[in-house]
Amino acid sequence: MYGFNVTIDATMEEAESKVRDALATEGFGVLTEIDVQKVMKAKLDIDRTGYKILGACNPNLAHEAIEAEPDIGLLLPCNVLLRQEDGGKVNIGFMDPIAVLGMVDNPKIAEVAPMVQAKLKNVAASL
């Protein structure tokens, strides 16, 4: 599997705020944000439920990964998906760094990936 999920009772705005706070607690910042719902409406005139991708990065761990493997940026940042569900729930999905970074044949990356995964699992558990 390439990710893990948690579902919470919240609006998209509440869920995003909780996710951002939990990421910050684990040393992550949000570098990128893609509001797919707005893009689909603007570009294709398609109405869809909330769907937002946050690109999270822990600077210390990213630095370690970049030092070990300069092209690792092709696999960064760690994506966090907020997907609105029926009934006032939001599904929050986290990219599994072990699955994604496992594509890299570098033992130093293999050491960093579990640290990133543990931090993201802490974020999920705190929600």
From TrEMBL:
Query: What is this protein's name?
Result: DUF302 domain-containing protein
Q: Which Pfam families match?
A: DUF302
Residue ranges of domain DUF302 in the record: 34-97
Name the CDD domains for this protein. DUF302 (cd14797)
| Species of the source | endosymbiont of Galathealinum brachiosum
